[in-house]
Amino acid sequence: MRSCLALVLLCGLAGGCASPAKVPVSILAMPPDTSAKAAAAMTEGDRLFRTKDWAGAAQAYQAAAIQQPTLAEAHYNWAVSLDRMGSKAEAKKHYLEAANLAPGNKVIWDSPPLRETGFNHNLRQKSYLDPAPGQRF
Question: Is 41 exposed, middle or buried (0-12, 13-18, 19+ CB in 10 A)?
């Protein structure tokens, strides 16, 4: 009985010390109050993103952000698309813009360059979305 309890306790401690799993970054849905023109661009961006047409998706999300500049989800999705293309510096600008527009959005604030260690991110990585050396998804 004691050894069983010790084993359960040991497993609990080991699990508590493990680093949290990296959550894959994906696009955000548009909010209900999105303007019609921005919504059309977001829908097109979502379609292109699902087909892995990162450049096309980035253009569509850019159009949505132009139509509705305060749409944090457009900037975030634009950033994710740019990141997938390897445009890390440009992506970071839009991750930051999305965070400024949506201060309470946990998904946006957990984006790669805004994470606790994100500002010291490995510059050798093509994208924030690439796993760090020795890290797997």
Answer: buried
